[in-house]
Amino acid sequence: MPGSAKLFLSAGCLLALAAVAIGAFGAHGLKSRLSPEMLAVYQTGVQYHFYHSLALVLVGLACFHMPDSAALRAAGWLMAAGVLLFSGSLYALALSGEKWLGAVAPIGGTAFILGWGAFAWAVLRAP
User: For 97, left (φ over 0), alpha (ψ -120 to 50), or beta?
Assistant: First the structure.
């Protein structure tokens, strides 16, 4: 198995596992503790976390077909960074109420956008 495939497949699976656990914690443990507004912020973090965990799995699978693609590796790292920055900042904002954390989310969103663009570029450049 190519190293990038193994890395992104396992990272995607572990991030998906975390998304399910974090989502369940939010739905069951935070429902009565957060305002509806902050619970919605938290749930947005969970949604994007899960979507991009699956995207990392897709990147890992694509690595079997394009093991030498730098664009594909960049896509994987950008997706992972997006989960950390976008979803992580939304979780932290919802739990702490620190409004400045909302300014981090667009950086993570940009990483997601660039990640999808790099993924598309890798596919278009594939032989």
Answer: left
Q: What is the total count of domains within the chain?
A: 1
Condensed to tens digits (0 to 9), the pLDDT of residues 78-117 reads: 999 999 999 999 999 999 999 999 999 999 999 999 999 9
Q: Are 23 and 62 in contact (CB under 8 A)?
A: no
Helix (H, G, I), strand (E, B) or coil at 1: coil
On whether the CB atoms of residues 90 and 37 are closer than 8 A, the answer is no
Crossing angle of helices 3-29/36-65, nearest 10°? 160
pTM value? 0.94
Quote the domain boundaries for residue 27: 3-125
